[in-house]
Amino acid sequence: MEEVPLKAKDLILSSFSSRVAVISSTTADSLIRQHNLNFTQLIQPFARLSTEASWQDPNGLLIWPKDISLTFVDIGSWKKPEVDAQRNRRILTNIVGQNPPTLSAIPSAESSNGDSKTVELNNKDLDYQVQVPVRTTWYEVWRKTFLKLQSEVVGNQHEFLNHFVACLLVISSSEVKSSEDVANVVGKMSKIQQQHQYDHPNSWMLPSVLKYYLIIHDKSVNEQESEQVYQNFRTMYGGNFCHMLKLVVDEASDTEILVPNPWKILLLDQEDSLIFSKREEIDGKVPVDEIENIVQSDLLHPLSPDSENPPSVISQNGDISNSLKIPCNMELGTSLTIQDVRRIQLVINEFISKALLPYMERQCRNLNESIVNRRGMSKSFFSATKRLFGTSAKSAPSVVYATESVEILSRKLGDIYFLYGHYGGAYQLYHQLKKDFYGDAAWLYYSSALELAAISHFMMSQSEPPLAVARAFPVHYVNDAIGHYIDQCRMVDAATRCAVICTECLKHLENNAEAAAIFIRMTSEDCDLRSALMLEQAANSFVEMDSPRKYALHCVLAGYRYAKAGLKSHSLNCYRQGYQIYNGKGWRYAEDHVNFTIARLQNILQTPEGITKHLMATLVAPSPQSSQQIQIFYKEFLSTMANIKSVHEFFVPQIKFVDMQIRIAVAGLPTGEFHCSNYDDIGASSTSWDSLESNVVRECIKPVIKFKPTRLFFSRLLDNTVHPTVPCDEQFFIELPFYNPLKIPLGLRNITLKFDYSDMVEVTLVPNLELEPEESKSLRFSVISHHVGMIILETVNYELEFSGNIVPFQQTVVLRGPRLNNTKAERFGKLYAKDLRNKIVIINKLPLLQANVEGLPNALFHTQIANFDIVLSDNTKSKTPDMTVSQVIITMDNMERAVQVLPEQTSETSSAFSKTNGKNFTRLKCEKNESPTKIPCVFKAPQAGDTAELDILLVYEILHNNDVSKKAHRVIRMSIQIPLSPAVHLEYSSLKMLDCITYLGLMRLYNLTVDYSVIISKIFFSPSDIEVTELCSSSHPEVKIEEAGIMKMNKNESRNIVLKFRDQKNLLKDNQRLTINVAWHIAKSATENLAVGNSEINVSEAISSIQSSFVFQVKHVNKVYADFGESTNCTCEVELLIHSKTSGNFSIQLEYNPPKNDITLTGPSTRASGQVSLGGVTTALLELQALQTKTIKYLFIVAWPGVYNAAPKITVMDEERGVQESYSLHSPIIFAQALSSVPSSS
């Protein structure tokens, strides 16, 4: 039968009750045992005042006590219990272990039930919904048992709350027939009481004992005789001290049966009594070292991230052995009726109201008179000594007061007030006594007075007016009492009693902060059970204070102490409570400790529900834990999972499904581990492949109804809203990156892929993969489907190995496309595109061609020309005779400049293909289906860069039964990267136009190779119609262009080259592809070349800059000597040659074109009119023909010696088009004063 939780007031009343001794005769006891009860058990459920009664204190104040409770003790079989802290500790541990918490599920706000409630806690910016237990029944049972054990401690001189105050003599009516019999029977029983009082004087509160006589009606005696016996007792001892009880012995009728049975509440007490009576048996069954002497190396603090094994358990299920539980199936109180219960209650009411309260009223007056009479005397010998010798209160030894001292009498009076409802008087006495005890340094008396003063104050606040008080609860009394109990008195049990009672008072007053502080203060290293209970109650107080972090911390600490005490189920419950706060809040060390400990405890208690969740949580990356700690987590996880016979989802290693790649129509790729530095290389160039394929299909494969680019590669950067398409029985590859996020190495075994049609899909098995800490590796799986339709990649299956444990795991393939952001709904909602890479469509069989490159060097020089072969082979595994390849198209960007398909050179290639060239593609018609087939090609490396990228697309057309209307095409993509190194570099510095068809150029050659000499074999123009007429270099003044190998350049050598060339056909005009080419080779031997190349430079822009309709040449002598003293002017004849590139009639006018400064003998000329002039023909009308030359002669006249510009400024007017052009020419000439012996020089 479950007990109702006690309130603070009820707890105090049940903890402090007057003890009444019971002496029962043998005959009376046999009458009671007919109901399966002894006398104390018969009356104990009704040992509380149920009517109104009153008494007066010595000051005449009328007290109306309520709920006075009594504890009846049969002293005939009573023995003073021995105080054994170890035994009591084991009993309390057993009691708590027999009341485990409910561990059906992990607490959550959604899973609340009748045993728990959901509480909303707020802390700064975080909100929590925590499920906390409504009651901690194990704490309530522990508290009840603990207080009961404390109440059995009698003989205390510092308090008298558990002392006997009266004696109840129980006699059968059949035992006494006369007054002499009454005297004899009562005399014998009184001797028993007196002997007990003599043997245990400290067990009785007062020297004079109240005796109450209860006569049990015996059915063997008629009622008149029993009534006569009762009247004899009333005559001898007074009517208020006697009572006769009549009980029914026959079977009661159904209507009179008691429901509920009031004695069922004694079942637990009876079980406890049996436990107490079997302490020696407990000692034999539960050794001390199994509970207390736990190896500390197995227990780490809950805040430590290096928590190892929780403490060892006492039994397999994590609690104290259940062998001590004593079932009680007896029917108590049989044949007793409702009338019997009323009679029993009447006995108690009359005993309290008519005998006990008046007796206590008299004793209070006596005690008060004794206190008043002794008030003027010295309080004690120690007090007098202290006044005489000045003993310090703080250093005084333990104090023992005399039985008749004022302090002891006052304490007895205060205890009587407290037990019988006069809480105001009790508080005043305790308050006064604490001062006296403090002055005498009587710390035990002082602590007890503080404790009872605080409890009396609380009971006053709960009383009805005018006794109620509104002052605050004296928490400092409680703290001071606990401190002195522990520090000075070394009485932890007394401090615990004070704490458990006063904290209930504080919780009733909603002062949870002080209650939590007291609970925390009661924790210590000497008792794990008490510390665990106190920490758990402190955590519950923090819930009421809206402090989630403190709640979680103290739950974890309580779980740790429960584990040390051997109570694994209670420990698991506390850790689960703290888990609700720590989970997902970023406190990783605490979260890992809680998860790991919960998993360990669940493993011990064999409750596997949710254990994998907690173990996996400790391995979530990134983790701040050390590698050693992660290794402990990982080992525990695998050892636990090895016992679970199923495949579990696990996130280690991290398989990045978003980076999954699928390769189609390729063969020969190795499976297993491979190096992949970048997953986006092919995806970035997908657009260029699609463009090439589109152009070729539209040009060569007709008719084309609707073009869809062929997808041979799928990655995260491409459009994955389309399904990968693979022909049946054809191999394709799936590549997945595996990342180890942990700080420990991982060993994976038997890695494979699982599809929905597993029996019709062949997948390669990767036997092992070793991943170092935080290392990433990629695996390639080969897949062949024999099923036409859609196959879905569901999971990646693998095994993890650690220390001999091999456990299977899997990871479900989850793909999600990029987030959509096009419409308003997509922007405001979290919508994502589809990703269909794991849903592969298998179509009917198709022919599969494989292309390889042969003969291409592994490295090239800039502008090197290399020959290679494209080898086509039929890679179809299961032949399809109705499917044939009709044509193959080879294409690439800028194909005419990079790659050329050579003419057929052998009978093999000519019989297999017929070649047709197109713009940027070459079409090869298949004449015969042979495999393999070579296609000769040539590749020219670029003249710059570190790598040459050769991206070749082959498109082959497939016919079904040679039906043109049923055609398909497939593609082969070849992407080759070749490292490059520099060779011959070409630069030009200047170009000059000599006449309309003749040009002069200056360029520079560099041999940039490191180890080779380069032979320049030819220098020519493209187009080839431009003729190089003369060639010379700095080391070869005259080089014959007809010679093979015109020059040799050593490594790191450079040379200047001057060349003259002629444009007979006017090809240089507006030619954007005019290049100067240098053919070179590196000789490997006399008959073999290591490399052959052709470097070029575009000179179109340079040619355009010097292009003109006319080219002028000025001919004259360089220096003229004249006697300027004899003649005023000096004259020189100048010829002007006009080269025309066009035909027509032109008007030509010549003018003097002065330089910036004319230099004369007298300094810079003033350019005055008459100093320099032109004479002769200065104006002419000429009819010119294209590519012909005309000559005009004019005179150049100067007046002073100096350096002049003899070339004129020419204005040409086209008479037909009306276009005028001006040209400024420069040609220096020197005029000098002639000496008589120096002739003129030309």
TrEMBL record:
TPPC8 first Ig-like domain residues: 684-757, 758-860
Signal peptide range in chain numbering: none
One Pfam family here: TRAPPC-Trs85
Domain of life: Eukaryota
Protein name, UniProt field: TPPC8 first Ig-like domain-containing protein
Protein's organism: Orchesella dallaii
